[in-house]
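Let's practice the habit of predicting before peeking. Look at the sequence and jot down your guess about where helices and strands might fall. Then scroll down.
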Amino acid sequence: MNLKDKKIGVILGGSSSEREVSLRSGENVYNALKRKGYNVVKIDLDKNIFENLKREKIDLCYIILHGAPGEDGSIQGLLEILNIPYTGSGILGSALSLNKIVTKQLFIANNIPTPEAIIIRDGEFERKELERLGFPVMLKPCCEGSSIGVKKVNNIEEFEKEIKNFIDRYKSGLIEKYIKGRDITIGVIEDETGIKALPILELVPENEFYDYEAKYTKGKTKFILPANLSEGLTNRAKELAIKSHRALWCFGVSRVDMVFEGENIYVLEVNSIPGMTETSDLPAEALADGIKFDDLVEIILKSAFIKSKYSLKF
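Done guessing? Here is the structure:
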């Protein structure tokens, strides 16, 4: 199959709180595909998405949306109805990985080490568990990305002040034990021939933790790439990255976030559509592995044809 004979739609933007990041990522992806010689157009996700895909006669979609409905399985479902192949994870992997509550439950079920947490479901949670968990904790919305809405809470007084606003805004999420350690992230890429974990990136943010500002403001986070880890820890972390990617039924590409505390590794979450901006983690890791940005985009493009993901529609 010659993909250069196909018309590719880069689906970007959308209406989530991560719209601006998606536009930046999408512009970079669009330009990379143009440089590679593909027939490509940008499609901003809105209520006319169905008509726009049909009008443009799109054969293949490169999804570079962040947050819902790009990372929750919604756009993947529409594209399957239209019989249009698309990049990255399928309906199931997208829905699972965006939901931090289900992610946590699947990590535990698969014996993947992860920080202890209390689930907030529709505003309800086990308050008595707070004492066992201890402080500080991280408040994390159920289905937001890019650390949007994430807040560190240091004591019970701060917690009582923050929790009502958090529940009013997000309804559901996690109260997660804060692990003070080294933040790392590992990209996972795959094609029909296999799967690999990219070099490990250690993140040293100026801010208290790797929040939205630290992620997308140049100079706010120091990259250590590859991370200065022992061979044993490096191998364990990469194995956990691939195991986490598979546990959440991701395909093609993901980025797995972890924290090290001494010799202990804790997996925090999996991002099924990693950012592709100038400050994003995945392109930096790929480059450290000898994969230039345009080549990385092409690898992800070809993930549209990982057949096994299309059987996971339940």
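How did you do? The mean pLDDT is 91.
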